[in-house]
């Protein structure tokens, strides 16, 4: 006996027939078809948050706050951190800050702030810098380049 695609038959009891709802009492799921008593949810779906025409919760509560989608969030690096982690004459780049774990993400911009003190001459490459921090670095003979 050879097997051909047209002659394949599944074995007895391996496949269960789909239950057809709403096809009469004798079918087992007749009359209300497992949807309970009459009502809006039986006839169709109700959108999320709908409260039967009552003013819904999301409209009753006050709207507060403001979300600025154009705001740029910076990772902050202080002069004190640079003093601890770099030697005199070193180059401070976004990659070196990430390697020394002074910033968490490579993709997020970095801003240099003037908290703490600095005594070393450094070449710094960051996305943004405060005016005071720039003055302190340049006073020591270092340079600040914006990337």
TrEMBL record:
**Residue numbers spanned by region Disordered:** 1-56
Q: Where is the composition biased (Basic residues)?
A: 16-28
Domain Large ribosomal subunit protein uL15/eL18 spans what residues? Answer: 77-144
Which SUPFAM superfamilies is this protein grouped with? Ribosomal proteins L15p and L18e (SSF52080)
Q: Does the keyword Nucleus apply?
A: no
According to its record, what are the GO cellular component terms? ribosome
Statement: the UniProt record of this protein carries the keyword Cytoplasm: no
Q: Which Gene3D superfamilies does this one have?
A: 3.100.10.10
Q: Write the signal peptide boundaries.
A: none
Q: Which UniProt keywords apply?
A: Ribonucleoprotein, Ribosomal protein, RNA-binding, rRNA-binding
Its assembly, as annotated, is:
Part of the 50S ribosomal subunit.
Q: Which family does the record assign?
A: Belongs to the universal ribosomal protein uL15 family.
The role this protein plays is: Binds to the 23S rRNA.
Can you name this protein? Large ribosomal subunit protein uL15
Record organism: Mesomycoplasma lagogenitalium
